[in-house]
Inverse folding.
């Protein structure tokens, strides 16, 4: 488990390094290469996240707090990647790209900022619900096993 936690920390550091390189990249080709590197790094983190999910549902592991914490760290990076990927897919001269760069009145900008903030909070709450449901399933599975052990 400790080895996996270390891999997660290294993966997150690599992800952030690549993200910094991408933001400072001069040409579009460099940005695309960095985006591809980000994609491979996020895939590695997702595989580690799947491992954490497996451990989270395992009944033989008692202290699940570090598992949940590391899973959340990975999910934060996944959210960052989703935003980056969306920005990269928006072509500079597409309708969406032109609209986003055009001048908007302050009310419209404020409205968009509020919508984005709300969407972020909704996603955070969904993640918390998923985590709580996983914990509930784990507790229910443990309670069933204890109940069967008590009957035998």
């Amino acid at each position: 488990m400790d080895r996996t936690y270390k891999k997660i920390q290294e993966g997150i550091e690599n992800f952030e390094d690549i993200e910094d390189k991408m933001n400072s990249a001069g040409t579009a080709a460099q940005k695309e290469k960095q985006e591809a590197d980000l994609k491979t790094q996020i895939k590695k983190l997702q595989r580690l996240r799947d491992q954490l999910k497996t451990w989270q549902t395992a009944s033989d592991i008692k202290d699940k707090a570090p598992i949940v914490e590391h899973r959340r760290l990975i999910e934060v990076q996944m959210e960052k990647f989703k935003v980056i990927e969306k920005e990269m897919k928006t072509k500079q001269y597409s309708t969406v790209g032109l609209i986003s760069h055009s001048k908007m009145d302050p009310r419209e900008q404020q409205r968009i900022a509020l919508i984005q903030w709300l969407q972020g909070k909704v996603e955070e709450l969904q993640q918390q619900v998923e985590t709580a449901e996983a914990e509930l399933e784990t507790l229910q599975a443990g309670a069933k096993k204890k109940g069967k052990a008590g009957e035998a």
